[in-house]
Design a protein that fits this description.
The structure is a single chain. With about 200 residues, the protein is of the alpha/beta class. The protein has 2 domains: about 80 residues, 2-Layer Sandwich (Double Stranded RNA Binding Domain); about 120 residues, Arc Repressor Mutant, subunit A (Orthogonal Bundle), CATH 1.10.10.10. Helix content is about 45%, strand content about 15%. It contains 8 helices and 6 strands, in the order βββαβααβααβααα. Strands 3-2-1-4 form a 4-stranded mixed sheet. α4 packs across α5, α6 packs across α7 and α7 packs across α8. The longest helix has 26 residues. The radius of gyration is 21 Å and the shape is globular. The protein starts with a strand and ends in a 9-residue tail after the last helix. The C terminus is likely disordered.
């Protein structure tokens, strides 16, 4: 089986992507690729990776995501394989919006299998399409960051990245919705004068 492959440098390491007929089937960190390669071999048999720029649009979309466009990955076509149960879990993960998290129990309830929390955890851990299928948004019921295939520090970075961008967008939306805040953001000196505040009076 021949798969199209590309790599992208990110703030948290090199990501490798693989696609079959422009449909994404694997995304993982290069330093953890061995386990993904084994999963691809189990799924497809002998696999040959052929370098091609931006297969399925994945590389450019990932670059946009890391640059702050958190919606860039939303409509990427994916085919992760897996069992029927795993596919249900992975589909549920894509409904968790950036800036939010869910517990394993939340995901189990969402797919109609309340008692299958451990199985959800196993499916989450075997997700072959990191970041695009956002398994990093699933955390422990007590808020702990549980295991992540790329390492806990990467999971922490991804969650902080998403929360920071979402928070920034909310602030920007508030400014655009309020003419006075917009003026303050664009011309703080003019705004202060109109408010009767000298710039030297600010603490």
């Amino acid at each position: 089986m021949k798969l199209k492959m590309d790599e992208i440098e990110t703030p948290i390491g090199t990501l490798r992507v693989a696609a079959l007929e422009d449909v994404l089937c694997a995304v993982g960190f290069a330093d953890h690729w061995a386990s993904l390669a084994a999963a691809l071999h189990q799924r497809f048999g002998e696999v040959r990776l052929e370098r091609q720029a931006n297969p399925g649009g994945a590389t450019s979309r990932l670059a946009a995501y890391f640059a702050g466009d958190l919606s860039a990955l939303d409509d990427l076509r994916v085919d992760a394989g897996g069992t029927a149960f795993q596919r249900k879990v992975w589909a549920a993960l894509r409904t968790i919006p950036p800036g939010r998290t869910a517990s394993y129990s939340d995901v189990a309830k969402a797919i109609g299998s309340r008692t299958a929390v451990r199985a959800v955890g196993a499916a989450n851990g075997s997700n072959p399409i990191s970041i695009v299928v956002p398994c990093h948004r699933v955390i422990g019921a007590d808020g702990r960051l549980c295991g992540y295939g790329g390492g806990i520090e990467r999971k922490r970075w991804l969650l902080q990245h998403e929360r920071a961008v979402v928070a920034s967008c909310r602030i920007e939306s508030a400014i655009h919705a309020n003419p006075e805040m917009q003026e303050a953001a664009q011309s703080p000196s003019v705004w202060l004068v109109r408010r009767g505040i000298d710039e030297g009076d600010r603490t």
